[in-house]
Write a structure and sequence with these properties.
With 224 residues, the chain is an alpha/beta fold. The protein has two domains: 104 residues, P-loop containing nucleotide triphosphate hydrolases (Rossmann fold, 3-Layer(aba) Sandwich), CATH 3.40.50; 115 residues, Rossmann fold. Helices cover 36% and strands 17% of the residues. The strands form three sheets. It has a four-stranded mixed beta sheet, with no helix packed on it. It has a three-stranded parallel beta sheet with strand order 5-6-9. The protein has a two-stranded antiparallel ribbon with strand order 7-8. The longest helix is centred in the middle third of the chain and has 16 residues. The termini are close together. The relative contact order is 0.13. Belongs to the Mrp/NBP35 ATP-binding proteins family.
Length: 224
């Protein structure tokens, strides 16, 4: 089976994370048709505001400038042939989310939340926003769901039990896609710019990410 061509667009203008997570830096070059050429690592094409500003430079912009930047990232990047493009959105329901839902036809959205009450309250706002703008919700991922002690091997629900997220899914009629554990290696992998599926491909943590990816791909009729 052919490996799908994938890209990820970091739409967090104020706090871009993709350059760090993919161990990429440098300003993108321009293509022959004057579009930005994505930076690639691990077989994934990426684009981020983090490539266009200095690493520690703050982006102090008002809404109209943010919307213009989002439009440029959406329409002025030479992605080439992709099977799937993932848009990594910042938290909230503001200018970025509204601009994207107005500018692009989306196959669906994925809600990511921890089990904590404050996080699930924000997740509900995100769910209701996507429903308001008629974007389907592919499902929900529970992040940092469980910590397994490496010494006593006891499982601890650091941010509360799964019951809160399970209830949220039932109430809003959305599918639960899976859990991402709270584990030091995931953070260490990110710090080193290596996705866990690359750094530890045989680990249970990588399996959790891959299972979620397969579930999402199945919902958009894509095989991996």
């Amino acid at each position: 089976m052919r490996i799908p061509w994938a890209g990820i667009l970091d739409t967090d203008i104020f706090g871009p994370s993709i350059p760090t997570l993919f161990d990429l830096s440098g300003e993108p070059r321009l293509s022959s048709n004057n579009q930005l050429v994505p930076l690639t690592n691990y077989g994934v094409k990426t684009m981020s505001m983090g490539y266009l500003v200095r690493e520690n430079a703050p982006v102090v912009w008002r809404g109209p400038m943010v919307m213009k930047a989002i439009q440029q990232l959406l329409h002025e990047v030479d992605w080439g042939g992709l099977d799937i493009l993932v848009l990594d959105l910042p938290p909230g329901t503001g200018d970025t989310q509204l601009t994207i839902t107005q500018q692009v036809i989306l196959d669906g959205s994925v809600i990511v939340t921890t089990p904590h009450t404050l996080a699930t309250k924000d997740a509900v706002k995100g769910i209701n926003m996507f429903k308001t703008v008629d974007v389907g919700i592919l499902g929900l991922v529970q992040n940092m769901a469980l910590f397994n002690c490496p010494h006593c091997h006891h499982d601890t629900h650091v941010f509360g039990s799964n019951a809160r997220v399970e209830s949220l899914c039932r109430e809003h009629g959305i599918d639960f896609l899976g859990d991402i554990p709270l584990h030091p290696s995931i953070g260490n992998d990110a710090d080193q710019g290596k996705p866990t599926v690359v750094a530890e491909p045989e680990s249970s943590r990588a399996a959790a990410f891959l299972d979620i990816a397969r579930s999402i791909c199945a919902k958009v009729d894509m095989k991996i």
